[in-house]
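Team,

Forwarding the record for the chain on the shared tracking sheet. I've put the sequence and predicted structure together so nobody has to dig through attachments.
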Amino acid sequence: KTPPPPPPSSKNKNTNDSKFNKSLSQPTKAEEVEKAADGPIEITIDEPPEESDAKDKNTLKEEVESLRQFLRLKLAQHVKDQDEIEDLRQRLAEVSKQEEGLNKLNKIKDERDKLADEAKMLRRREGEQEKLLQTLRDACAADKKQMEDKDKRIQDLLAKLEVFQRMAISGVPSPRNNRFVRVVRTSRSGSAAAAPFLGIRSSFSSVASGEMHLRSLRAPA
């Protein structure tokens, strides 16, 4: 037969009673949640020990310093980029001005080419006109020479006519084979027109009519 368990001592009994009473006096989890929802929320961070805290601070300082260095580099790069952007803007403005000047220059070249073509056409026309003028000059020179020859011949005939007038007035005979008589005979149509010059002793009126005929020959044909 096994012996029955010993009865609990009074000390253990009191301890169990105090734990039970304490558990009853403590709030449950649901009550804590409701109380936390109604009241302010508190966030507690477990603080590390001093040794790990020092390590974290050093690491944080290094990270902050590294971040500052990175920001300094970025700022310097940003300033450099801004300078390059400003330089590029100035270059772009200069290129735009040069492009505008180049467009004007191209327009001027086009106008110059047009003027050169017009000048070539004018020179060609001037050459044609010069040829035409030279032809007219040559024709005028030939006509002038012909007129001068005709005037010279008429002057000779008039001089001879004046001699014949004097001979007719004075009654001096002249030979029939005289050149003046032959010229007058061939220059006028019909024997009646040449009759006043064929007679040796023709009257003054007949000689005057021959003089008028010779003067009419001076007019251009």
